Amino acid sequence: MIPVKILGTGLYAPGEPIDNTTLKALANIDFDAEKMENKIGIYQRHIAKFRNIDETTADFATKAALNAIENAGIDANDIGLLIIATDTPEFITPATAILVQGRIQQGETWTMSFDVAASCASFTMAFDAASRILNSNPLIKYALISGVYNMPAFIRPGDKFSYPIFADGAAAFVLQKDETTASQYIGNQMLTDGTQWDYIGIYAGGAKKQVTPEVLENNTYGLLSLQPLPGDRNVRLWPIIVDKILANYNTTTDEIDHYIFTQINKSVIHKVMEAINQPIEKAHFVMDKYGYTGSACIPMAFHEGVLSGKIKRGDKVLFVASGAGLSVGSNLFIY
To answer: What kind of fold does domain 4-181 have according to CATH?
Structure first.
């Protein structure tokens, strides 16, 4: 186990929430709002551009980071490691983490800053990397990790599948190495299947496919679903991940106080909790308030759990996140 403590958390979502009826008007689309609410669990979301807010990924991440720094009660200049977890970066290069560092530390500092891009599993990767770097490098006093999502910026006009689901938001953790408390980062379990790269993604704008007039004319830019995702993918995968990580660290399902899964579908989380024979009260849901925020949804759910008092110091928590590509990550820790 690694003696790393979550010292503070922060959250940011832009503008007033947009309910399903309002979204239909703002996006000029129609969709099954009843299914979106009762099965998927999404009642509202935050989308900056539909509230005429001139903010994007780096803005969201910076505001969540500043909230976490304030919550932790530290000086931003004492942060020696800054990781942004996202697959919707501000630019292809430079890294979004570099922009955020400049905004919160206002210049040249002895800080390691980089992005982690593993689709919607990015935050679990960043949490693991930050914990291990913080533990092994005595020169780093605090680490900051932020999961951030700005997928609505990549949704094409009229996309009635994507707009009701994807939303803007960010959440951040401040981490500290602390051998005096019960807080511990226990470990992780990751899974990858790169043969699924062409299911859903943003395929234009990188080295392989530039954004050209032809790409724009053919409507092949932005978020694309090239083939249907397997309907049972997360229902099958998440119990396997849970079993694997708990076996790795000699832990039982009953010992976990809180299960936080990717906030993509309420009914899927219910099925997974049934599959692992755990009460639904141990699961967390924030898609009703924030929609699906990809790389940000895991830390957003954790932040809300802490804020509400549901998650308390000493509780054992398991994160499981999956994203396109396919990438799945998990973290086991004591808060």
So the answer is: Peroxisomal Thiolase; Chain A, domain 1 (3.40.47)
Q: Are 65 and 100 in contact (CB under 8 A)?
A: yes
CA–CA gap between residue 161 and residue 145 (Å, rounded): 30
Report the top-level CATH class of 186-334: alpha beta
pTM over 0.90: yes
Do the domains 4-181 and 186-334 sit in the same CATH topology, yes or no? yes
For the chain, the structural domain boundaries read 4-181, 186-334
pLDDT in tens, 237-265: 999 999 999 999 999 999 999 999 999 99
CB 84 within 8 A of CB 116: yes
CA distance 138 to 116: 22
Q: How far is CA 116 from CA 68, 96, 127, 182, in A?
A: 19, 10, 10, 28
* pLDDT over 90 (residue 181): no
Cα–Cα dist 248/241, whole Å:
11
